[in-house]
Specification:
This protein has 550 residues and is of the alpha/beta class. The strands form four sheets. Strands 2-1-3-9-4-7 form a six-stranded antiparallel β-sheet, with no helix packed on it. α1 runs antiparallel to α2, α1 runs antiparallel to α4 and α3 packs antiparallel against α8. The two termini are 62 Å apart.
Length: 550
Amino acid sequence: MKKQLKRKCIVYGLGIIVYAGAVWGAARFMLSDQEKFAIFLGTYLLIGYGAFQKLSEEIMEKRFPVEYILVIFATIGAFGIGKYMEAVIVMLMFELGMLAEQIATDRTKRSIAKMIDLRPTYAIRKVKGQEVQVDPSELKMSHIIVIKPGERIPVDAVVLAGSSTIDTKAITGEAMPVEVYKGDKIYSGCINQSGVLEARVTRIYKDSIVSRIMETVEEAQNRKSQKEAFVTRFSKVYAPIMVLLSVLIMVIPPSTFSYGNWETWIYKGLIFIIVACPCALAVAAPLAFLGGIASAARQGIVVKGGNFLESLVKADTFIFDKTGTLTQGEFRVARIKAVGMTEEELLKVVNDLNEDKAVNGILVQLPLPKHIDESKVLLAIDSNKDVDGFHPVNVGKMVIGEETFLPCTPAGIIEMLKRTDVEISGKECVVIGRSNIVGKPMSMLMLKENATVTIAHSRTKDLKEVTKRADILIAAIGKAKFVTADYVKEGAVIIDVGMDRDENCKLCGDVDFDSVSQVASAITPVPGGVGPMTVTMLLVNCLRSVELNK
């Protein structure tokens, strides 16, 4: 496209020089009408070649090129009545206008492409122990690929060997790198940062995430807004009418009423058609929407088309979710009002949801703002819809050992210990932290499993001596890498509930994984340890809530 634009700029520049020379020659020398015609016709054809070419292409593709028909009709008519200079200057102005539009469009497209061009240029396939560089489109299902540090993942795959951190922000928008291990899924367009990965292809190139994104952006230009569609329809009706009116202006006055001569009225008819030419109208709407799409792309937002951009005018609320809740419809959003909500408003929302038979589970994210009484809100939730397990009734049932909704994180930890064959009964367990969300319910559930439980916290004296007695140590203190190897008994099982940031702003837990993993018999990572179990147990509670509220 850049070469084409450069070529047009050269042609039009040469045309301007030739036109200026023709005007100067006509004024300087006594040229005959035939000589003027030849000079200006040559200039006209040089400048207007692109217009005639575009006209023929549009007609061959059975489209109606409104602006080209009107301009060519007007300029040829001008030549017909001897207005050579006017014909050339009109064609020149028209072509320069179309060139400006093309330049703007090209810049917009390049801006979009630069913003979302995530496509890898190559892939490394492993064949009989040898690494072979291939085009990503050549990869097939179950092919084995190797991704080295710094390389872009070519297709969607699952890790077979190795571990690394993956930069996923181009796909997910998440700024923090994601750690991947054997069995984890990786997606095309993401960048491998640290380790060498060996992976099996799960989607061919055309079906991968990055290809679908590119298709979305490329198709965006074809999705017209209502305004663009209207302009297109309007132009198809408008152009023939204007041509007809122009002809009538040329013919009726001199032939019917004898108002002036034919040359005068033909000239006026041609002026009319030039003025009536809807070039700006035809190109302004699509160019404006394309510019809007490009502007959004520069901000990291992919708009699927002009129709969607137009609909954003009516929007007053935006909801974002990266886990698929909204995009896949896994959960129904009943009501959201977060900004400036009072305690009374929140309690009313909870009460409405309690009475809504279509709602089976209610979860209020803790902690709440200081102006809202947490205990009032928890008490207001219907205990049979309390999927978080924090209602006093459910807490009481948990303490006395009755069947009820259990707090998700503690319940997930119990389930994880059981599923990994960690013996709980008779073991000494130390819980660091006494929150209502983790610490206190964790101690109750461990007691239920016949462990000997100690709850430690910020005021505990000789904390190291307490934690070093633990066969099972559960850290939920909220301090990054607080628990080091000298806090841990040899062979202890370590559960890290923390979600913190280290000095490099990297996600980490309450436990110093590198040092503690050397002495522990088992340890949960962050992320990827307790977090997924919390989500799992929330789903368990949701299923239980459906049964209770049938």
